[in-house]
Amino acid sequence: MLVRRCAVLLIEPREELGLDLQSMFSGGSALTATMHWVALAPHLDREVTLAADDVALLGSVGQTVWQQRAALEQQYGADIVARLLDHGLLVGDARLGAQESELSPELAHWRERDDTLRAQHWRPLSAVAHIYSRWRGMQSESGMQFPTFDDLVKEYGQPPSPAVERGGASDAIALPAPAADALDDLLLRRYTGRNFDTTAQVPLALAARLLQRTFGAQDQRMMAPDAYVLKKTSPSAGGLHPCEAYVLAQRIDGVAPGLYHYHAVNHVLEPVQALTVDEARQLALVAVADQQWFADAPIMVIVAARVFRNFWKYRNHAKAHRALLLDAGHLSQTLYLLATEAGLAGFVTAAINEVELEQALGLDPLTDAVIAVCGCGPAGPGDYVELRNAT
């Protein structure tokens, strides 16, 4: 069988601190440090602790050229090679070997996952950052009300200044006051809602407008034979618009609670998973990591990027992953403004449980990157009115 290293691998020297009571009582240092190696490989979706011999072997095997397994076993030992194959840090291809006709199901799985990652053209560091920054089962500020600035100052001390000065004040150029404009009212009324009316429904026509004007195609253009781009109301890197909208409907007139995919061209909601009212509420809580001040929004949108739509052009590009994040930010701001225009409060958050959302939507994090959750709805009594012009 032939083997090679997985496509993307970051090996981190990690320190674990502990207490040495015996040393402390004898007058020495109480703090001890233990070092070990940790492998971060995006196709695994988990960390792997390595021994020094594992690191040495992985450092001698490239991710492109296949090598004979027998030669590695002779140099490093059969046990180490088998262990790294089992972990998925080495991948095999029996089809290219002379002795075996197929891989075991476990080894074939890691080979398939590695092939999927290679096919997307991720920048290695971006892939590691994306996969290992995802949450699962996280409960952010569970059971608490949204912390006020006073709460934060008491816990963390004074924040950095809201504005920073660069250069001398005597050199500053005074600018004229901005002229009033029709857009001012909309911009100044835009705020982040943190208390939604739990009984209010969003009319279907309004939900349709919000989705179409935020995520829908306003036009299609053929840039080459069978190669189209969409015109939307927000900018996108390369005009590619890779971000898809998945709607978690809780209270939309005429739409049963559940998960839907919004088709940007056909302007339809495609059912993904039917949910009861209680199931939709529970998924909303899980989605936003138990931030209940967001979970009551009647319409929530999971923004997930089809990475190959972007990386098809920006292959192994240092800025490609940033472009996906910018795209999601543009879309959320457009939704904010449309919601404000309709008299609704909006929100967007990156504090989300991506893994549970991927599972609910049937998405692979290597190909479809869940980035943020946004939403809107009528404000409930006592919403953060004092923050409306400050957030």
From TrEMBL:
GO terms for molecular function: oxidoreductase activity. This is Putative peptide maturation dehydrogenase. It comes from the Bacteria. InterPro entries: Bacteriocin_Proc_Enz, Nitroreductase, Nitroreductase-like, SagB-rel_DH_2, SagB-type_dehydrogenase. Pfam families: Nitroreductase. Residues 188-376 form the Nitroreductase domain.
